[in-house]
Amino acid sequence: MELGQSIDLASLGSQLLVGLSRAMILFIVCAGLSFVLGVLRVPNVAHGSLYMIGAFSAYSVFALFGTSSTGFWLSLILAPFVVALVSLIAERALFCHLYQREHLMLLLFTFALMLIFGDLVKIIWGAEYRSVLAPSILRGSISIFGSSLPRYNLFLLIVGPLVAIGLWFFTSKTKIGKISRAAAVDREMVGVIGINVSWVFAGAFVLGCFLAGFGGALVAPTVSISLGMDHDIIIEAFLIVTIGGLGNIWGALVGSLIFGLTHSFGVLLWPQFAIVFPYAAVVIVLLLRPRGLLKSVW
Amino acid sequence: MFRGTIDLKSLWPTGAIFIVLLILPPILPRFYTYIIAVIFVTSLLAMSLNLVLGHGMIFQFHHGVFYGVGAYTVALILTKTSLPMWIGFIAGPIAAAMAGLLIGWFCVRLTRLYFGMLQISLGSLIWAIVFRWYSFTGGDDGIHGIPMPPPLSSLNNAYYFILIILIICLVVLYLILKSPFGSTLEAIRDNPQRCEAVGVNVRRHQLMAIVIATFFAGIAGVLFVVLEGSVFPDLLFWVLSLEVCIMCLLGGWFTFAGPMVGASIMVALRTFVGIYTEYWTLVLGVILILLIFFLPEGVMGYFLEKVKPQAEEGAERRSELDVAS
Q: Which residue in B74, B100, B96 sits closest to B229, CA to CA?
C-alpha cells in the first residue's frame, strides 16, 4: 500500500482539470437520468446501456465516414439521435403501458431492458474493443499554469457548461420544459388541464436518453468502447443523482462534481484505492443530508 | 387462531420434493447434481433477501455484499489461518451479520429508494476494497482452490451438506416469519405510520430483520465456498445483488417459496439457454418483460392466486366462525 508520489501544484492542477472534465461527462449522463427520474419517477437502469449504445453508434458513424474529423463531428450529432430513436421505440412499445405499476416493478422492467440492450449491442457490434479518434484540433495537450491538460478534456469543459445552460433554458424558458417540470410535481393536475401526459412522459424519457447517448458519444474518444461500459457508469450515475437530490438537474451537476473530483484526487492520494473515495463521499453526503444536497422533486 | 400450526396436508408436496432431491445425486450425471446444488445456494440467498424485501419492504439493493462477506470470511480463514474448518463455517455468517448490522445501522435512517442508494454506496465501498486489496483478498483474481476437508470434498457429499443446511435454514426462516417478530415486520411493511403510532420501534425491527437476513446470506456464502472452492469479487458486485432482487420479484416476493422458484428459473435459464446461445441475457430479458406484463405478482404469486381461492374461502369462513363464537 504505497501512497501517491509527492503531490506538487502542477499535478494537483492537472488532476483538478481531469476531474472536472470527467465530471462534465458524468453530468451530461446524470442530468438525463435525473430528468427521467423527476418526470417519470422511474429509476431507469437501462440508462447506462443507452450511454453504451451512444458510444458504439458514435464509433459506427465515425467508421462510416472513413475515420475523418468530419466523422467525429457527425458522430457527436447523430449518435444521440440513434439513442433517442431506440428509447422512443422502447417507450411507446413497452414502457408506456407500465406507468401505473409499482416502482420496484419498473426497476425490474428497466433491468430487463438493460439485459436486452446489452446483448443487442453484442450482436450488432461484437465483443471487440472499439475506439474513436478525436480530430486533430482536439488531439495533444496544452499547458495551463504549468500543468498539462489534454485538449479533449478542455473541449469537454466547454461542452459541459453549454449543456447545462441549454438544459436550464429548456426547462425554465420553453413551454415544453415548463410542462415537463409541472408534470414532475403534479402529473394529475397537468392531465386535468388538458395536456396529454403520456406524450409528455415520452418526450421526457426520450430527452433523458438523448443525453445518455450524447454522453456516450462524447466519452468515445477518451476510452476504449467495450461491453462493460453500461455497468461501469450506471451505478455511479444513480449515486450521483441520489446525492444531488432525485430529479434535480442542478443536483446532478453538484453530484457529478463531487464524484469526479473525489475520484481524481483519490488517484493522487492513494492510487490503489482511488475508487473508494467517491463512494465514501457519497456515504458522507447521504448521512449528512439523506434527501440529497439540493431539493428533490420526490 | 391456528396460524402457527402447520397443516399436514400442505406438507405433502414439500416432502415429496425433499425425497426426490435426496435420491437424485446417485442417479443424475455430475453436471446436473452440480446445477441443483447451485440452485440450492442461490435459493438460500434469494430467500434471505426476501425476508427484508418481500416481507419487510426494505429496499435491500445490495444484498450480494453480505453473501460475498460470508464467502470471503470462510475462504480467508481456510487459506490464511490454520484454524479448524468449523470455525470458518461459523465465522462466515457472523461476519456477514456484523456487516449487515454496520451497514443496516446507517441505512435504516432512510427509506425506500434512498435506503437502497445508501446501501449500494456502502456496499460498493466494501466491494472496492475487496477488489483492490491484492495482498489480502487476492484483488480481482479472487481466491481459488480453497482446500475442503475430506467429507465435503466430493460433489455428492457437498450436495447433501448444502441440502441439509438449506432445509434447516428454510425451517428457521419460516418460523421467524410466523413468529410475532415476522408479523410485526409485515405490519411495518403494510403501514409503517400506524405501527409507529401503536408503539412499534420501526427502525429497530427493520435493523433486526436486516441482521437476520444478512446472517442467512452469510450462510449462503459459506455454502458457495463449499460448492465452488473459490471466491471472487463479483460476488459483491451490484449486478449480482440486482439479480437476486429480480429472483424475488420473478418468483413472487409476497410468497414464502417464491424466491426459490425465481432462483431456480434464473439458474436454469442461465445454464440451459447458455448452452445453446451466448445471448442468454437477451432471452432472460425477454422472459422478464413477458412476466412483468402477464404475471405481475410473480410465478408463485400467480400460482397461489389460481390455486388458493377455494382454500382461502374455507379459511375465511372458519375465521368468521371463530369471531362468531
A: B74
Nearest to A207 by CA among A244, A231, A177: A177
Selection from B55, B100, B2 nearest residue B259 by Cα: B55
- Give me the numbers of helices (H) and strands (E) for chain B, helices first please: 16, 0
pLDDT mean over B97-115: 86
What is d(CA A290, CA A294) in angstroms, rounded to the nearest whole number? 11
Q: Judging by beta carbons within 10 Å of its beta carbon (0-12, 13-18, 19+), is residue B119 exposed, middle or buried?
A: buried
- The CB density around residue A224, as the number of other CB atoms within 10 Å, is 12
pLDDT band at B6 (very low <50, low <70, confident <90, very high): low
Report whether B110 contacts B121 (CB < 8 A). Answer: no
Contact present, B93 and B218 (Cβ < 8 Å): yes
Contact B132 A275 (CB under 8 A): yes
What's the CATH code of the domain at B307? 1.10.3470
Residue B147 lies in a domain: yes
pLDDT tens digits, one per residue of B77-89: 888 887 787 888 8
Contacts with A286 from chain B: Cβ below 8 Å: 110, 114, 117-118, 121
Q: How many CB atoms lie within 10 A of CB B36?
A: 19
User: In this model, does residue B2 exceed pLDDT 50?
Assistant: no
Q: Which of B121, B132, B284 sits opposite A273 (nearest CB)?
A: B132
Supply φ then ψ for residue A143, to 5 degrees.
Answer: -110, 135
Note the pLDDT of residue A28: 92
Q: Residue B286 is nearest to which of A97, A116, A231, comparing CB atoms?
A: A116
**Which residue shows C-alpha cell 405478482?**
B297
CB contacts, 8 Å: A105 with chain B: 249, 292, 296
Show residues of chain A in contact with B292, CB under 8 Å. Answer: 98, 101, 105, 108-109, 112
Residue B113 lies in a domain: yes
Long-range CB contacts (within 8 A, 24+) of B225-229: B225/B71, B225/B74, B225/B75, B225/B78, B225/B92, B225/B146, B226/B148, B226/B152, B226/B158, B226/B161, B226/B162, B227/B34, B227/B37, B227/B38, B227/B41, B227/B158, B227/B162, B229/B144, B229/B145, B229/B146, B229/B148
Cβ atoms of residues B114 and A261 within 8 Å? no
Q: Give the C-alpha separation, B37 to B21, whole Å.
A: 10
Evaluate whether ipTM surpasses 0.85: no
DSSP conformational letter for B233: G
**pLDDT higher than threshold 90 for residue A210:** yes
CA dist A62 and A76 (Å) reads 9
Q: How many domains does chain B have?
A: 1
